[in-house]
Design goal:
The structure is a homodimer of 470-residue chains.
Chain A (H helix, E strand, L loop, with lengths): L3 H8 L1 H12 L11 H17 L3 E6 L9 E6 L7 E7 L19 E3 L2 E3 L3 H22 L5 E7 L9 H7 L8 E4 L11 E6 L1 E10 L5 E2 H4 L6 H11 L21 H8 L5 H7 L12 H7 L2 E10 L8 E2 L2 E10 L5 H14 L6 E5 L8 E2 L5 H14 L4 E5 L4 H10 L3 E3 L15 E3 L2 H17 L3 H5 L5
Parallel strand pairs in A: 3-6, 3-7, 7-17, 8-16
Antiparallel strand pairs in A: 1-2, 2-6, 4-5, 5-18, 8-15, 9-13, 9-14, 10-12, 11-13
Chain lengths: 470, 470
């Protein structure tokens, strides 16, 4: 069967790679003010390409005060009766430090062994260009897109998307769509055809326990005053029971237990537990009654990320410190309200605090809920169908234990669901030296994007309305 | 009643203060190599004074290799049939840092409001000179001392007496005596006539808990690996039960419970618990069934002096660290063997370690047992009688919660008991800026030292032999 659109897309791969090399050569490190020119170069390159592709209403989106790195916007709304899809990507990249660990210069895309190396190439310049060039193929061959497309290309993803909520709120009408398809994210493993259908939320705080006005000498006060490190240790120890359940009352409020079907689905996923744990020199641990993947994807956590107090230099000092500190974060699952979950843990600490100590909570963190694509969502069905078409396999539905702020922000502010459809792979060193992208992912990605656009074209806006929350 | 010796001693106070000022002007900070000259000046000054006083066999004592700061030795053995007392003091002082917190220069003795300020003046240059000048008064008036005296003036007390054990072992014959009388130490409180009859021992170690080969991201591993800060917190929490007893099996081995008489004695000591705790902004805490003074003096402790792991900088980092650390020390009471007590705690940690973590013990510390002067010891009786004579009150028998390595080292290596007979007061800022010594303590101290030498002269060497252990 001749597929003119896909053939065109595949034929254009040399051009895609050329564009990708030019884009990698723009050092678009948003965190580094010295690289403002690289950010602007990346924006100009993308805006030029969007203009070439006939995208209209092109503009830079910012919060009302114009602050932050602008997001790029463009639209082609030329498929009456078809769904409108907001395609998300980002043009900013992580800093390249530590530079000395790069085998080739980070802002020069270099090919080795079927891979292209460069900062931001996998996260997410190549996946973004795959999405854009699949659109370009429809435009070149058919003269138009099969669905209505709005593009939102963010410039602050790697710095925590501080302006994104304000951009979504300010440009709510402009950004209205039926669903969001993200060219950012990552496929789980090279050996699996999989779709990510959920991520955990997160929240956190910092705690300070104080037992005296000053540090005390253990000879003069040892045994007659409370030691804040003992108090804090007891509080931390009390957060989990012997089975690894979190003991804070109310913490699990709203958590929906995984269904038997979901558990069976997870259980069916090939997962080499031995290899996973031996790679990190650790042993499986966690909540009783759940497998490792269930723990990671379906169960919330409380973790101390840092803890300190007293004398931590060389040698010994017989001090009873007067204060002790810990930084805690939580990973949350669907159904949990981040604020309530955080307060449950704080209330537990307060309830277990002995009368000899005081407790101070600080360190407000950004927080967000977990996210899961509804099982029946038409965009998810389109993604499944696209991957079945290109791979011949039914993709496994996987989740991630980390948080994807985009999905939660878009859900909360636009009421839309998001499907992650990146062709990065999770081992491609993003956020680390020697980031790379597999050249073989380019034809895979183009074929899948061409197909998902066709699958979406088979759906109607009405199918999405049941899922839209705003 | 005319007391020529005491009168002579009191008449010589201006000279004592002059000598004290000269001695304070020698910056004898043993820890600071740049102050070697100050150490030598202090030694020379004391040696000159000992020569003037007719002390014989004067020499500098070191370990066989000549390392470390020498201790000064001298003897007057001219009281046949009388006990031989080893009088201990030290000529080194703490560093003066932080210099900016001193109101007057630390190495210049300045008088203000009935106090002399200067580094080392209370710890223990003034108490040492009080002891020496009381001896000088006997020599000046009677031509001889009432008991046999050996002087040992150490130069490494403030740096932990690293050479003292080797000095005692090397010069064991030279230093043989019936008991040790220390001009170092401190009276507990200005408002109480008291003798210190016991101190706690100490030991310690450092612990490292490891759960993985590297730090892990809480999104990728949260919930499936053990968090070493949780493991360490649980271990620390497990060290004490709900009543504040130490839960490590065997830790209390050998501990002799305080007798009813001892408890009554302690209970009779005026102790303003409210004032003590409000001064440090803390609340009473500790082992159930004991008063604060019993906890401090008669009960052993385990304290975490420092604990750390993970991210402890500003903000948040969603890391699961792979290791966590704690520094622990113990305070020990009579009957406890330091090594066994330490091993009991280490064994407890190992026994409670989950299979997901490994434990490493390091940080060998100097350690020593608790010390208590035997209740019937003749030197203790002499001290009681001397204080009754000078104050008209029976001194209270108090202990300290801290450790006095001298007493334990002398007991272990020379088999001798030590009575602390310093006229420093514990509020005189030793080891801190603006160290001072009350001028009023000089006549008190001289009278008490003159009297204790007379009281010792009433005893016979045979009375001591039952207590000598080597």
């Amino acid at each position: 069967m001749k597929d003119s659109v896909l053939n065109h897309a595949l034929d254009q791969q040399p051009r895609l790679i050329e564009t990708l090399k030019t884009l990698v050569a723009c050092p678009s490190v948003g965190a580094d003010p010295a690289m403002a020119e690289g950010m602007e170069d990346a924006r100009n390159l993308l805006e030029t390409r969007l203009a070439e592709m006939g995208f209209q209403n092109r503009q830079r989106l910012t919060p009302p005060d114009g602050s932050g790195q602008p997001a790029l916007y463009g639209e082609r709304l030329e498929a009456p009766g078809k769904p409108t899809i907001l395609i998300y990507a980002h043009y900013d990249v992580q800093p390249a430090d530590p530079l000395e660990k790069w085998e080739t210069p980070p802002f020069e895309a270099v090919e080795r062994d079927g891979r292209l190396y460069g900062r931001g190439i996998s996260d997410d310049k190549a996946p973004m260009l795959i999405a854009l060039e699949s659109l370009a193929a429809f435009i070149a061959v058919d003269g138009k897109l099969p669905v209505n497309v709005k593009l939102l290309i963010e410039g602050e993803e790697e710095t925590g998307s501080p302006s994104l909520p304000a951009i979504l709120e300010t440009h709510r009408d402009l950004l209205q769509a039926d669903a969001v398809l993200s060219a950012d994210g990552a496929r789980w493993r090279p050996d699996l055809v999989a779709l990510n259908v959920g991520s955990r939320g997160n929240t956190g705080f910092e705690v300070r326990v104080q037992t005296a006005a000053q540090d005390l000498h253990s000879g003069r006060y040892g045994g007659i005053v409370a030691n804040p490190l003992h108090v804090l240790s007891s509080l931390i120890a009390s957060l989990h029971d012997a089975d690894g359940h979190i003991a804070a009352e109310g913490f699990y409020d709203g958590v929906v237990a995984p269904t038997e079907a979901e558990r069976a689905e997870i259980d069916a996923i090939p997962f080499d537990e031995g290899a996973t744990f031996s790679a990190i020199g650790a042993k499986p641990s966690g909540e009783a009654g759940y497998s490792s993947l269930e723990r990671l994807w379906m169960r919330p956590t409380v973790d101390v990320n840092g803890m300190w107090g007293g004398y931590i230099g060389a040698g010994s000092k017989t001090v009873i410190p007067n204060e002790a500190f810990a930084k805690l974060t939580m990973r949350l699952v669907p159904g949990q309200d981040p604020q309530s979950a955080k307060e449950a843990v704080i209330n537990h600490l307060r309830a277990n605090l002995p009368a000899t100590a005081t407790l101070e909570i600080s360190g407000e963190r950004g927080q967000g809920g977990a996210y899961a694509v509804p099982a029946g969502h038409p965009l998810l069905a389109a993604a499944v169908a696209a991957l079945e078409h290109t791979s011949g396999e039914t993709p496994l539905k996987v989740r991630i234990g980390a948080s994807l702020p985009l999905t939660e922000i878009v859900s909360r502010l636009l009421g839309l669901d998001t499907v992650m459809f990146s062709f990065a792979l999770s081992d491609e060193n993003f956020h680390a030296p020697n980031e790379f992208f597999r050249l073989s992912s380019i034809p895979d990605g183009l074929a899948s994007w061409v197909q998902i656009l066709r699958e979406i074209a088979k759906t109607s806006p009405a199918q999405y309305s049941a899922y839209r929350r705003a």
